[in-house]
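ok trying this again, last paste got cut off
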Amino acid sequence: MSGPTTAEGGEPQEPGSGRSRLPRLPRLPAALSAPRTRTLILAAAALLAVTGGGLWALYGSSWLRVEKVTAAGTDVLRPEEVRAAAGIASGTPLISVDTDAVENRLRGELPRIDDVDVVRSWPDGIRLKVTEREPVLIVEKGGKFIEVDDDAIRYATVARAPQGVPVLELTPRRTPGPQRFGTGELTRAAVEVMTAVPARVARETRRLKVRSYDSITLELSGGRTVDWGSAEDGGAKNVTLAALMKAAPKAGHFDVSVPTAPASAAS
């Protein structure tokens, strides 16, 4: 019995046939059948159209562009100077406003700003939510007043002293102390004291005198004084001073520099 013969060149031949048999092509999977393929193509085209249209709307159209910039939360600052410092050009695509850059620019140009949020207000606005620094101390200089916040940052100079804010008087002694603790360190110590004293005492403080890191004195209304010592052990000194003032309400001088051995005197 004879099987298939092989033609010259190695192609198999059917018996009784002078032609070589061609290999069969593989069938396309059902998932790639014509109707399904057309559906996928149409879906892809639709997605591209939607994406392209969305990008055009965000960047290229006259919609979704900055038309108004508002500022809120200001007290000393004026909203118009905050808007001007933000530097956001009218007509800028809303999506392209770099909010981090705007925040950094505002803090750099307006040191009174402690915190700011730059928020896109769709479809055409930007909102600037500002938190201003508040002074806990002021430093007199040349007839004006430098405001110092609770981070010991000197952030603004004003012509009139803010009401109820104590004056910081730095008069360092001629000792090794001032060399170890410069003006910045002594200012931070003073701020630490002001945030540690009882609330009532803070309200009544008129002047804070710092002669060295270990010698900080508060001058209160009515001519009373408090020898606080260093800024250390603020919590213990707070409790001790409150108890001492309650026990000797008519005293004119209080010493809590060593909170475990407080003292009071008539003057």
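PB: full thing came through this time. The first strand starts at residue 5 and ends at 6.
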